[in-house]
Amino acid sequence: MENLLSSAASHETLPDSFVFPPDQRPPASAAAVELPVIDLAGPRDEVRRAVLEAGKDLGFFQVVNHGVPDQAVRDMEASCEEFFRLPAEDKAAFYSEDTDKPNRLFSSTTYGTGGERYWRDCLRLACGFPVDDGARSGEVIERFIAPTRAVGMELLRLLCEGMGLRPDYFEGDLSGGDVIVNVNHYPPCPDPERTLGLPPHCDRNLITLLLQGSVPGLQVSYRGDWIRVQPVPGAFVVNFGHQLEIATNGLLKSIEHRAAPNAAVPRTSVATFIMPTEDCLVAPAAELVDGHGGNPRRYRAVAFREFMRVYKTVGARRESVEKAFKI
């Protein structure tokens, strides 16, 4: 527990174990590239087109007027920030380095890097869906997860319509796993230019919805550069995971992203991951494969359980995962 950043006394200097080599932390671009902001209350045809275009171009976008109640969002953010302000002894019961434990608090875990640690504490929660009446997830989490997952499922339906798949293609096992919530906390850092809150990685799941809060820090890979994602009040940042890339035969991409700490203020973000069931077989949709039309099958079918085993072995970098699963 002594390694938990948010529980330790403030560091005056950055410990060597957190220093990334310069080639692994190129600075973000000063270019004024912004993620599309899509109003989900707009006409369905326009929303469908905007979601598909943003997904193909950047793999990331932000959504507003999404229908998750403002109160549910505010309560979730306040509860998460309150948790990380607790004394170390109050958080100790949640701390575990067992990566197979579904609900745990952990710190600075390597992500297939060269052994460097990164400037983040994380509270990970696995919530079955629908939420079990006897679940210990708490009312605040439950009131947040249900509508947030619904937004993700609606985005998947819009993508299906735009790609020519049946609207419920991603329902069932492809989205039937636990809803995973990662509450990421990045304390103020004494030397943010030499470390990372999260190193470059791609998400392992189907689709991710992120509340990034009012403090910027998320950076997205775009055309060989890194772009800073500016917070939009009340918005979710949406991105696609590897399972969506495999299922769409590469039409939609899982894009690398990272998190940068800062010296002045803490940052807390809430990432909601929609996951397949562990035994779900994920494969390119037949409708998106045309061996004679220049769109051959690009990925082999893989059980999600097997995907996760390989993902944990090769690391979360896009190139490593592609090499493991591309035909």
UniProtKB/TrEMBL annotation:
SUPFAM superfamilies: Clavaminate synthase-like (SSF51197). Keywords: Dioxygenase, Iron, Metal-binding, Oxidoreductase. One of its GO terms (molecular function) is metal ion binding. Residues 176-276 form the Fe2OG dioxygenase domain. InterPro entries: DIOX_N (IPR026992), IPNS-like_FE2OG_OXY (IPR044861), IPNS-like_sf (IPR027443), Oxoglu/Fe-dep_dioxygenase_dom (IPR005123), Plant_2OG-oxidoreductases (IPR050295). Belongs to the iron/ascorbate-dependent oxidoreductase family. This is 2'-deoxymugineic-acid 2'-dioxygenase. It comes from Dichanthelium oligosanthes.
